[in-house]
Specification:
The chain is an alpha/beta fold and 286 residues long. It is 43% helix and 23% strand. The protein contains ten helices and 16 strands. The protein has helices spanning 3-23, 40-55, 67-76, 92-115, 138-141, 153-160, 183-193, 224-232, 240-252, 268-274; strands at 27-32, 59-64, 83-84, 87-88, 120-124, 131-135, 145-150, 164-168, 170-172, 178-180, 198-203, 208-209, 218-219, 221-223, 257-262, 281-284. It has an eight-stranded mixed β-sheet, sandwiched between helices. Helix 3 crosses helix 4 (92-115), helix 7 (183-193) packs parallel to helix 9 and helix 8 packs antiparallel against helix 9. The longest helix is centred in the middle third of the chain and has 24 residues, at 92-115. The chain starts with a helix and ends with a strand.
């Protein structure tokens, strides 16, 4: 490698310095989903990036789903899948599979972080009564919950001792029954309860476009007002609508900045956090 190549590497490090100084010690909630949970190379790349963030003083929290793995196990045990309005109908038998699979995913992530020298802890919302829920629609959806309260006592202790919490979206009701929760909703609720500096949604989309499919209309930053306008004017549709609504809700409830990132891009977290331009869409309170 010639001297210029080494100097270019040094410039990248220098460019990241103000961002490291700005966000050191700050809480970052990462909703982990999409291809980054399935593709082995993307998985390893993302976990390595989170290990780096924790090593330089950030306080990352991982919230994950696991729909594809749940589907595989339901098929194995011959339990029929059913969805209503995009939500998994969760009877008692399905809930047992959901809880088993999600807890296994948490522990797998803990193991991967350990390979990079990072101490972490796999949790569900049942631990320390972290996620207290009410039924979303008991009659039609069964054990699907809606977060009513986040008790951060256990999380605060884990973060104080420099562990990375890895949280699966299972909560409890007032009778300590287990409930399946939408992982995006869990990430929002935790970020809001901790007044997180950043909330990141990793998925298989690049971000927000003013005109979908037209790369020239990609939007790097959106204010809350602009995000509302995009929804009301029909500039976004499908799954982007609830995602933008979640972003708006998080900003309005204490989160400083929300990012929508394409988890199919290796090192997407580092590119978004430590470069002047970034690669995804950031929703800001401005």
């Amino acid at each position: 490698m010639d001297m210029k190549s080494w100097q270019d590497k040094a410039k990248i490090l220098i460019e990241s310095l103000p961002y490291i100084q700005l966000f050191r010690g700050k809480t970052i909630v990462i909703k982990y989903g999409g291809s980054a949970m399935i593709d082995d190379e993307l998985k390893k790349s993302l976990i390595r990036d989170i290990a780096l963030l924790q090593s330089i003083g950030f306080k990352p929290i991982i919230v994950h789903g696991g729909g594809k793995d749940i589907d595989k196990w339901l098929e194995k045990v011959e339990i029929k899948r059913e969805f209503k309005n995009g939500l998994r109908v969760t009877d008692k038998n399905t809930m047992e599979i959901v809880e088993m699979v999600l807890n296994k995913i948490s522990k797998d992530i803990v193991g991967m972080l350990g390979e990079f020298g990072i101490c972490s802890c796999g949790l569900s919302g049942k631990d320390g009564a972290l996620l207290q829920v009410k039924p979303k629609d008991k009659e039609n959806l069964g054990f699907v919950g809606e977060v009513e309260k986040v008790d951060t006592t256990l999380l605060d202790s884990i973060l104080k001792n420099n562990f990375v919490p890895v949280i699966c979206p299972v909560g409890i009701d007032k009778n300590y029954k287990s409930y399946n929760i939408n992982a995006d909703d869990v990430a929002c609720a935790i970020a809001e309860a901790l007044n997180a500096e950043k909330l990141v949604f990793l998925s298989d989309i690049e971000g927000v476009y003013e005109e979908y499919g037209n790369e020239d209309t990609f939007v790097s930053e959106l204010s809350i007002e602009e995000a509302y306008r995009f929804i009301n004017d029909g500039k976004v549709s499908g799954g982007m609508i609830p995602k933008l609504q979640s972003c708006i809700h998080a900003i309005e409830n204490g989160v400083s900045r929300v990012h929508i990132l394409d988890g199919r891009i290796q090192h997407c977290l580092l590119l978004e956090f430590f470069t002047n331009k970034g690669i995804g869409t950031a929703i800001l309170d401005k």
